[in-house]
Amino acid sequence: MDLHNETVEHNRAEHAGEMHIVRPPVYLGIFFALLVLTALTTGMSYVDLGVFNAVIALAIACFKASLVVLFFMHIHYSSRLLKMTVGAGLFTFMLLISLTMTDYISRAWGRF
């Protein structure tokens, strides 16, 4: 019975500090993807799409931020608890932005 408990404790200790090692080609791929998206953002600034310029720029920025969070901050390889914590923070951020935008849109600009 003691041998089983020692084996279980050894397995827990072995997996507690387990860390995923990311190969350099993955980092290089993400780096070049970020460079391409930055060039795309710069190129889109010269195209007049009206109100959609800001929408497209923010969409590209969100995609770049998600690449950084997932790969450079190692959230992609983390536990589900850490992924849920990041998701909760993102949900809270989006809620605050939504409330701010509803206040901004509902104001009577120019009716002073």
Give structural notes.
The protein is mainly α. The chain folds into two domains: 21-76; 78-112. Helix content is 75%, strand content 0%. Helix 2 (24-44) runs antiparallel to helix 3. The longest helix is centred in the C-terminal third of the chain and has 27 residues, at 80-106. The radius of gyration is 22 Å and the shape is flat. The N and C termini lie far apart (81 Å). The model has no long low-confidence stretch (mean pLDDT 83).
Shape: flat
H/E order of the elements?
A: HHHH
Q: Helical residue percent? A: over 70%
What are the low-pLDDT stretches, counting only 5+ consecutive residues below 50?
A: none
Nearest-integer average pLDDT? 83
Fraction of residues in β-strands: under 5%
Sheet of most strands: none
Count of discrete domains: 2
Radius of gyration: 22 Å
Total strand segments: 0
Structural class: mainly alpha
Distance between the termini: 81 Å
Total helical elements: 4
